[in-house]
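ok trying again, last paste got cut off:
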Amino acid sequence: MSQAKISVLDWGFLHSDATYDTVHVWNGRFFRLDLHIERFFGGLERLRMSIPFSREQVSEILQNCVALSGHRAAYVEMLCTRGASPTFSRDPRDAINRFMAFAVPFGSVANAEQRQRGLHVAISDRIRIPPASVDPAIKNYHWLDLVRGLYDAYDRNAETALLLDFNGNVAEGPGFNVFAVKNGRLTTPAIGVLAGITRRTVFDLCAELGLDCTAADVSVPALKEADEVFITSTAGGIMPVTIIDGAAVADGKIGPVTKRLEKLYWDKHEDPAWSSPVHYG
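nice, full thing came through this time. structure:
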């Protein structure tokens, strides 16, 4: 990692003109790698970028990154930047796209203590970049709204933030989706959010458990009045939230639905239908 380089003229650096995806490895197994690669290639297509590798070749590159690193638990990223134009043209069609991949030790949005007691979240009044401006289906590095939201949260003694959509409903946080549980039914915001792989995994787990799960508007009052709240991310999986804007969610304890989903989520990491082994040398 210390030897990785990128040109200061790369539009990925200068213009945040890039797309990426991240997958994690747990106990030496990739989790839902195929879904992450498919989303990455979808982003490339929408941004009119191209790389000289097929899906299978990207999978092999990521395998090698992890195998060579020796990490049994890793955070693995594939990314493509617009690159730079050899003639300093401002026409993106003249830029030479660049592909990169790396594997680093696994990291989580929530640390061990926060997972045990639940995260403390603040709802910022920042508006998440609307879909009409930047398609949230394309993973991107446009994070200034999220970073400002984080500072809003820190100013209120919270640990992370949730931003609003353009209608004033809850959207998402820095690198994670959010779910509310009310009377055993789950709801997650539908508009202006990245359709996260872990978010999709929750839908799949709910179908297996017979739980009702819907993507719909989630108002700020509805989130605060929920029986349970949790967030989802490749960086950490399913993580409980027990305080919002300084007030406890329900009784302030991690709820049974969250616990049940979290256990099943980690159990699936050993399931060959959901995960694939890293071939260490």
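cool. The helical segments are 11-14, 33-46, 55-69, 112-117, 144-155, 197-209, 220-224, 256-267. The chain has eight helices and 13 strands.
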